[in-house]
Specification:
The chain has about 550 residues and is an alpha+beta fold. Among the domains are: about 10-50 and about 85-230, Phosphoenolpyruvate Carboxykinase, domain 1 (3-Layer(aba) Sandwich); about 235-290 and about 365-500, Phosphoenolpyruvate Carboxykinase, domain 3. It has twelve helices and 31 strands. Belongs to the phosphoenolpyruvate carboxykinase (ATP) family.
Amino acid sequence: MSTKNQWKREEISCNNPSFSRFRTMIETAFYGNHVTELQSVEEAYREALEAKGTIITDLTVYKPDFFDLPEGTRVLVDNGGAVTGRTAFARRILGEPGTDDEQLIQVVQEAIYQKKATDFWKTSVVVGLDSDFMVKSHLMIPKGEENNLYSYVLNFQFLNKEYRLDYEASKAYEEGDIYIYADPSFTHPDYPHGLVVFDETHNACAVLGLNYFGELKKATLTLAWALAKRNGYVPCHGGLKQFKLGEDEYYTMAVFGLSGSGKSTITLADHDHRYQVAVLHDDAFIISKENGSSISLEPAYFDKTQDYPMSDPGCRYFLTVQNVGVTLDEEGKRVLVTEDLRNGNGRTVKSLFATPNRVYSVATPLDSIFWIMKEPTLPPILKVTDPALATLFGLTLMTKRTTAEHRVQKTKADQVIEPFANPFRIYPLGEEYQAFYELFQSQDIACYILNTDYFGDKKVTKEDTLQVIEQVVENQAEFVPFGSVQSVEYLPTPGFDVNWTEEYAQQFKESMEVRLRYLERLQHADNGYHQIPEVAVKRWRELVTTLF
């Protein structure tokens, strides 16, 4: 089977690299007599039905038997308080420069002790949906948090009888299972915004003082991505889809962007049914360094409800819903008020049936990677022909924050650089740079940049973006040189003329210089923990010096 939670007695030692002080502390909590193991998805549903504050809508789950749920299962709503997004500020990674490991471990140890008199649930799920990569993850969460427990076993794959057999037959890794301890009621004067502590190399995490479901989902994916990275895969916070263009002719593309950038919209687009399209996932997958194949990590989608008014047929696939409104329809039935009217970042765990063409793995390598940016000096699409620059544009991916993230420290500028659109990295950035560079270099993957915001003062619409993607997929895109920018081309697009006026040239150069300063800071910040090869920085510096 994939990962391990049982050991020969002679393996149980401080010399076993799968053990650490933090992991042992987290795992031990799971065996307390105040912890009850969840037996089924149906039990999670019935417990969530009875949980205080649950809103039971009159909407029913589509094809409930597929999820081992009874006929007539209702869509449940669970609303939190003021925090309705991820709190990146709360994250701490053991072993990173500037992290006081001892102090953090003591805080978590005391937090676990303080809850000895509180009843908890525990459950196990599979992360990774192909026999080449299936990881077992365990969650421990207080009773009273049944809605998050229920969403967890729907978002990931619950270890039912069928998947237990698949898991036991999957490829084995010399890694321990993932263990996540969660306590939303945690408070501490030093951590007023919550605390999330990761032990990356030992697959353990504590999520404290945070009740947003996305914290549990992303903590699980964060550890699974790190485990995959250690075992020959490239972790991807993005979407992947494959077009069938003819007999034995396919085009496989991946898109990388922060929540709200268009990643899910692009991945799940049906293109007016003009193509036969298979979707791997819109948020989390891994790519094999060995053969370029890709594997999805979760069956469901954790989607924004902002684009789903109650009349939208997509609401049919909602399983659970978080942080939305509820009202009565003309028949007096309880239905949803979405479109972020109640608050920003309303969310749903949405079933895989939202995409009838869903697959869990893609055997063929990628044809292209699209970096999604929100950057006003970029036309709707660029092509980057040099592997080093392709990787560096991904590393300096410029975008904007959205309501998906709860920002503790407010800044005037919404525009940020988020390397590879991955705010969940818990290992040195240089390792991720090297992994993507090798993908571009060895697997002959084309690189494109999409701007899904404004080019100058004109908005790039969803239709504009899908149109240029379709031109690329059909090999109809005729790219031309992008001014004097080395190894970069653009696709002339109606309504988005590129005029190299003095003002535009200066704005573009300033944008490239912002990226250069970011790269230079990486080389020295935190004693060079996230530094990349100096030759890469030199390559970007050469690009900037040749501009105008």
